[in-house]
C-alpha cells in the first residue's frame, strides 16, 4: 500500500517496524502487564502447565525500540483513561476533542502509527490510503461501521473496539426515554421552561403492562430486555439470528410481527446495508396507532422524513432519537438543515426527544472503554497480539520471558494464498522457532513466531527477506 512499507526504507522505518524489549519489568512507566495468564496458551506450540507457570513468573515485556517514535492521534475526546495508558508507554500522543474534516484528517493521518476515534470519524479507503505508517486503529466505542474494515485488513491495519463497555449505559438511556415518552415529559418540561403550566393526563401512560419491541437482541437489546421486564413490561424481539430469550421475552419471526404488536419499538442493530432505512414508510404504517419509536443505534437505520410524516399524521405518539445520518463534528456545532435537510422539521415535532449521540456517554462507560481499547492498542503495538481485533484473525503467543534475551517476535501479515508459510519458514529456518501461530480471515493471514539467538543484523536481514515476498502485506519484528 505504501512506500513506507517497502523494502527500500530500512533505517528510520525500521525503527518503527523493529521493536525491542527495554526490560519493562523494571520500568515504572509501564502499567500494562502482559502476564502469561492473559495469553492464549493453547495456541503456543509446546506450552505445558509448568512452562506456562514459569512464563507467568518471568514474562518479559516487549517494548518498541524507541517509544517516542510511535505517534498516536486521538480524536473525539477519547477518555483520560485511554490517554493515560498510551502516554505511559512513552508514545507521542496528540489529543483532539473533536473529529476532523476529511482534508485535515488526511493531513494528520499520514504521520501516525495509531489512530483512536469514536463514532464520528470516517476512516474510508480514501483516508486510509494516505495513512502510510498506520498499523492500528482503536475505535473507542462499540460501532466500527465508520471504518472501512476490509481496506484496513487488506493493508495490514488492525482495528479494535470495545464491544460492550457502554451497553448498559445505552439500555438505561432507553428505559428513561420509554418513561419520558409515555408521560410526555419533554413537552411538559419545555412548557414549564417557557412559563406555561399544562397539567394533563390525556394520552399519558404507565409503562407497566405495555409491550416493548426490541429490534436487534444483542448486547444492548438483551440488557434492555431485562430492565424493561423489571418495570413490568412485556418484551418481544426481532433478530436475524435465533437467540435465547432473557426472562419471559419472546422472539417474533418477522419485523412486521414486532411492529404490529409493540407499543414501544426500539432499534439496536448495527449499521449494515440490510439495516439502512429499515424503518421506512411501510414499517411506520405497520406500527400500532399511538406507539413510540426509539433509535439509539445508527442514524442510517431510520428514514427520518418518514418518521416526521408518521408523527405529523399522529400514527406515532412520540419518538426519541440519539443518532442521525449526519452528526456535527463537535460540541457547540449547530444541528440544522445544512447538516440534514429535515433537521428543522424534526425539531418542531411534539413529544420528540433529541439527544446528541450520548447513549454510551457516561463516566463509567467512557472510562471502561478508554482502558479496554487503550490496553488493546498497547498489546498490539508492543506485542502484536490481535486478540479482540474486529478485522484480522485473532493471534497471540505467550510472552517472551526474561530468560530469553536474544529472542525476537516476527509478525508477518500476508495475503492468504497457498505456499506462503513454506516460504516464511524457509526464511526463519536458520533460527530456532520457539513457538509459532498463524491464522487467516478471508483474504488476510497473520503469522506470529518467536525465534531465538538473533541479533540486530539478523533481524534486519529477516525483515528485508520477509518484505521481499510477494505475499507480504506488513512485516513487524519486536524484540
Ligand atoms: N447511541 C449510542 O451511543 C450507541 C452506543 C453503543 C452502540 N450503539 C449502536 O448500537 C448497535 C447495537 O449494539 P450492540 O452492542 O447491541 O450490538 P450487537 O452486535 O451485540 O447486537 C446487534 C444485534 O442486531 C442483530 N441484527 C443485525 N442485523 C439485523 C437485522 N437486519 N435485523 C434484525 N436484527 C439484526 C444482530 O444479530 C445482533 O443480535 C451498535 O452497532 C452501535 O451502532 C449506539
Ligand atoms: O461514543 C461514541 O461516539 C459512539 C457511541 C456508540 O455509538 C458506539 O458505537 O459505541
UniProtKB/TrEMBL annotation:
Molecular-function GO term, any one: phosphoglycerate dehydrogenase activity
Recorded superkingdom: Eukaryota
Protein's job: Catalyzes the reversible oxidation of 3-phospho-D-glycerate to 3-phosphonooxypyruvate, the first step of the phosphorylated L-serine biosynthesis pathway. Also catalyzes the reversible oxidation of 2-hydroxyglutarate to 2-oxoglutarate.
Assigned EC number: 1.1.1.399, 1.1.1.95
GO biological process terms held by the UniProt record: L-serine biosynthetic process
Organism: Talaromyces stipitatus (strain ATCC 10500 / CBS 375.48 / QM 6759 / NRRL 1006) (Penicillium stipitatum)
Gene3D superfamilies linked: 3.30.70.260, NAD(P)-binding Rossmann-like Domain
Keyword terms of this UniProt record: Amino-acid biosynthesis, NAD, Oxidoreductase, Phosphoprotein, Serine biosynthesis
Pathway(s): Amino-acid biosynthesis; L-serine biosynthesis; L-serine from 3-phospho-D-glycerate: step 1/3
Stated name of the protein: 2-oxoglutarate reductase
Sequence similarity: Belongs to the D-isomer specific 2-hydroxyacid dehydrogenase family.
Signal peptide per UniProt: none
Amino acid at each position: 500500500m505504501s512506500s513506507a512499507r517497502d523494502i527500500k526504507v530500512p533505517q528510520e522505518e525500521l525503527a518503527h517496524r523493529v521493536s525491542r524489549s527495554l526490560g519493562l519489568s523494571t520500568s515504572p512507566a509501564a502499567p500494562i502487564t502482559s502476564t502469561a495468564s492473559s495469553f492464549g496458551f493453547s495456541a503456543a506450540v509446546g506450552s505445558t502447565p509448568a512452562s506456562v507457570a514459569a512464563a507467568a513468573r518471568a514474562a518479559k515485556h516487549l517494548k518498541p525500540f524507541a517509544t517516542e517514535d510511535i505517534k498516536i492521534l486521538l480524536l473525539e475526546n477519547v477518555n483520560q483513561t485511554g490517554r493515560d495508558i498510551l502516554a505511559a508507554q512513552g508514545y507521542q500522543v496528540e489529543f483532539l476533542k473533536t473529529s476532523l474534516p476529511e482534508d485535515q484528517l488526511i493531513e494528520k493521518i499520514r504521520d501516525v502509527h495509531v489512530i483512536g476515534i469514536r463514532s464520528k470519524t470516517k476512516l474510508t479507503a480514501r483516508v486510509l490510503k494516505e495513512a502510510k505508517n498506520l498499523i492500528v486503529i482503536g475505535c473507542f466505542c462499540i460501532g466500527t461501521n465508520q471504518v472501512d474494515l476490509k481496506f484496513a485488513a487488506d493493508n495490514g491495519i488492525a482495528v479494535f473496539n470495545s464491544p460492550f463497555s457502554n451497553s448498559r449505559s445505552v439500555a438505561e438511556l432507553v428505559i428513561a426515554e420509554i418513561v419520558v415518552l409515555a408521560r410526555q415529559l419533554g413537552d411538559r418540561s419545555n412548557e414549564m421552561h417557557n412559563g406555561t403550566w399544562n397539567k394533563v393526563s390525556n394520552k399519558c401512560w404507565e409503562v407497566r403492562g405495555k409491550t416493548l419491541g426490541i429490534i436487534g437482541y444483542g448486547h444492548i437489546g438483551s440488557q434492555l430486555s431485562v430492565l424493561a421486564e423489571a418495570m413490568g413490561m412485556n418484551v418481544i424481539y426481532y433478530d436475524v439470528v435465533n437467540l435465547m430469550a432473557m426472562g419471559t421475552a419472546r422472539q417474533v419471526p418477522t419485523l412486521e410481527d414486532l411492529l404490529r404488536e409493540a407499543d414501544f419499538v426500539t432499534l439496536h442493530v448495527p449499521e449494515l446495508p440490510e439495516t439502512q432505512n429499515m424503518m421506512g414508510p411501510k414499517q411506520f404504517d405497520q406500527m400500532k396507532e399511538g406507539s413510540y419509536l426509539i433509535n439509539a443505534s445508527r442514524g442510517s437505520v431510520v428514514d427520518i422524513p418518514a418518521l416526521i410524516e408518521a408523527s405529523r399524521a399522529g400514527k406515532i405518539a412520540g419518538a426519541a432519537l440519539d443518532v442521525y445520518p449526519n452528526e456535527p463534528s463537535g460540541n457547540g456545532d449547530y444541528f440544522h438543515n445544512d447538516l440534514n435537510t429535515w433537521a428543522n422539521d424534526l425539531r418542531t415535532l411534539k413529544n420528540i426527544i433529541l439527544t446528541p449521540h450520548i447513549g454510551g456517554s457516561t463516566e463509567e462507560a467512557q472510562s471502561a472503554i478508554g482502558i479496554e481499547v487503550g490496553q488493546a492498542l498497547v498489546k498490539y503495538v508492543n506485542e502484536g497480539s490481535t486478540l479482540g481485533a474486529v478485522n484480522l484473525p485473532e493471534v497471540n503467543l505467550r510472552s517472551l520471558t526474561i530468560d530469553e534475551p536474544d529472542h525476537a517476535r516476527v509478525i508477518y501479515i500476508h495475503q492468504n494464498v497457498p505456499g506462503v508459510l513454506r516460504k516464511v519458514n524457509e526464511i526463519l529456518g536458520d533460527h530456532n522457532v520457539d513457538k509459532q501461530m498463524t491464522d487467516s480471515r478471508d483474504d488476510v493471514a497473520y503469522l506470529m513466531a518467536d525465534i531465538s539467538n538473533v541479533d540486530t543484523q539478523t533481524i534486519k536481514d529477516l525483515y528485508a527477506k520477509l518484505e521481499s515476498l510477494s505475499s507480504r502485506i506488513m512485516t513487524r519484528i519486536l524484540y
